[in-house]
Amino acid sequence: MKDNNIGMLLSIIHRNLSAFMDCSIPAEGIGHGQKRLLIEIALNPGRTQEELSELLLKDKTTIARAIKGLEEHGYVRKERNSKDKREFLLYPTEKGLTVLPFALKARSKALMELTKGFTDEEYCLLENFLCRVAENAVNLRKSSAPHL
Length: 148
Known about the structure:
- It contains 7 helices and 3 strands, in the order H-H-E-H-H-E-E-H-H-H.
- The protein has 148 residues and is mostly helical.
- Helix 2 packs across helix 4 (60-72) and helix 3 (49-56) crosses helix 4.
- Residues 3-135 form the HTH marR-type domain.
- Keywords: DNA-binding, Transcription, Transcription regulation.
- One of its GO terms (molecular function) is DNA binding.
């Protein structure tokens, strides 16, 4: 095995990709995590906070705080679930939907730039390896924190 620090490399990728996405998505008053959450809500309207927590691997309190900020800035709205009155379904507002085209364009550009020079075979290998690393990371987190 090479002496590269995989964690450091993943951190470099994450930080730079996050910075690029933040600059590319015009959403005033909200941070990177809230932008990521807004994109998920805009792409999949009607999800619950719990579903988003599971999808993004964030604790419920973090998701609740982020949603509160998105509501306060007029990007999302809550609607009580008619099937389960304890739950709220989340929907993008008109203002929230204006962010989506920028986010999709930025995602596409980022993917193109991150995989520039890769053959189709290399791209498939990279995707498979990253899926395995991500799955292992989730399992590592779960094994070290039984309350999650």
